[in-house]
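Whiteboard transcription, Tuesday session. T.W. wrote the structure tokens on the left side:
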């Protein structure tokens, strides 16, 4: 869901779990530590106080996703993975 939202240019409020840090790497998007409701509250407050900042972050993230997470790149990555598996299983 995060990848799709980022590709659509939606402002992101998310925790630092799973593959989310890979999606937001090298951007100004701040991720919330997991299990930290106070940090979530602060991030929501910042969004309400400065929505323009979140719109700018969303555009930066949208551009990263469009460049890094194309269907071609994802398919190439999966193909390389399977080829490595086939080589090592012989």
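and on the right, the sequence the group agreed on:
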């Amino acid at each position: 869901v995060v990848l799709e939202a980022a590709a659509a240019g939606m402002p992101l409020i998310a925790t630092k779990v799973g593959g989310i840090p890979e999606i937001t790497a090298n951007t100004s998007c701040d991720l919330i530590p997991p299990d930290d409701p106070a940090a979530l509250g602060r991030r929501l407050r910042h969004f309400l106080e400065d929505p323009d900042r979140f719109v700018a972050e969303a555009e930066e993230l949208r551009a990263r996703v469009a460049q890094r997470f194309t269907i071609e790149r994802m398919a190439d990555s999966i193909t390389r993975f399977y080829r490595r598996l086939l080589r090592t299983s012989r």
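Someone added at the bottom: The chain has a mean pLDDT of 94.
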